[in-house]
Amino acid sequence: MTVTHANPALGCVFSPRDSGQLADFKAFIAAHEGNPVLTAADGTSMVLPPEVYEVLSQAVDVMVGGSAVSVAALSATLTTTQAAEVLGVSRPTLVKMLDDGKIPFEQLNVHRTLRLADVLAFREHRRRERRAILDELTRDGVEDGLYDDAYSDYEQALADARHRPL
Length: 166
Description:
flat; two-stranded antiparallel ribbon; alpha+beta; 7 strands
């Protein structure tokens, strides 16, 4: 398979000019559940591991939006700079979180290292907290008569927004 929209120097693959095929692929992914199978030109096939399928799905979502895709390897341990990038915060903010005991870390000499699993668990915990707060604020606003629609309408709109690509 030859990819014509790749730039090895940048380490990325660009979205094709005609994204119709990608949109069809995205719709296909959304319409099918179960274990995806990869079939080679010679007819041999194998089941894709769920992690590989997730990377493929995310890459298609990004490319349908017209952006380039790059896959980067992350070590099982991260520096504070890498962990801050994963969390989308500044390094000083991350260091404060570490000092406050919010994320476990190891300190060897002057350098702190974090386990990727701990960083991802913290990110998921923080995402769930934000979701719960937003749900509560919306529910309270509806109960206080600040909105014209029922809470279930807002709940559905929030759910739809969470699944919309950025």
